[in-house]
Amino acid sequence: MQTMRLIGFILLLSPALAVPAEGESELFVAAAAGQVERVDSLLAQGVDVNGKNAVGRTPLMGAAFAGNVRIIRKLLAHGADPNVSDSRGITALMEAATNGFESAAKALIDSGADVNAKNAAGLSVLERAKKSGRARIVALLEAAGAGTGAPSMPAKSEEDEKRTENPNEGSEGEEKANSETAH
């Protein structure tokens, strides 16, 4: 009897086994199953779009695993974070890429998903896509900067910012090169 109480107490206090709010699990299930109306209803009720289920998976991961682009876009429009990972370090983009859902992967990349993210085992999105034999996804990821180590949407340098603010002003090196080629 003492052992059972101790186990119950440990389970109660363990954050790794915490049970998510009912709506969060429902949103995950609805997103993974492609139930658009149910997803709409739960979002309208204010269910956390980034809420995780018992193993740390978000509704966006469920939709990406199933390749449901319509729900992916809906969740992203409601503030879903494309870079959240589960307890194994898996992201929504990894799910879409590994399962060969090109449109889903593109929607996630366009929303700022990190194309160089790695899971807990150290495998990148690109490596997972290659291991799964997803040539078109590999090309999509590489075109978005995967494998370069650079973020998928690099920050602008100070020089880029200056050019944006003053497009007619170049750096001295550019002006010098332009005047030398003009002669």
Q: Uncertain runs with pLDDT below 50, 5 residues or more?
A: 1-21, 151-183
What's the CATH architecture of the largest domain?
A: Alpha Horseshoe
The CATH topology of the largest domain is what?
Serine Threonine Protein Phosphatase 5, Tetratricopeptide repeat
What's the CATH superfamily of the largest domain, by name? Ankyrin repeat-containing domain
Strand residue content: under 5%
- Round the mean pLDDT to the nearest integer and report it: 77
Amino- and carboxy-terminal Cα gap: 94 Å
The level-1 CATH class of the largest domain = Mainly Alpha
Helix content: 55-70%
Task: Specify the number of helices.
Answer: 11
Structural class: mainly alpha
Number of domains: 2
Radius of gyration, whole Å: 22 Å
What is the H-and-E element order? HHHHHHHHHHH
What summary fits the major beta sheet? none
Number of strands: 0
Shape: globular
Give your account of this protein's structure.
- Helix content is 55%, strand content 0%.
- With 183 residues, it is mainly α.
- The protein folds into two domains: 13-152, Ankyrin repeat-containing domain (Serine Threonine Protein Phosphatase 5, Tetratricopeptide repeat), CATH 1.25.40.20; 156-183, no CATH class.
- Helix 4 (59-66) runs antiparallel to helix 5 (69-77), helix 4 runs parallel beside helix 6 (92-98) and helix 7 (102-110) runs parallel beside helix 9.
- The longest helix has 12 residues, at 2-13.
- Residues 1-21 and 151-183 have low confidence and may be disordered.
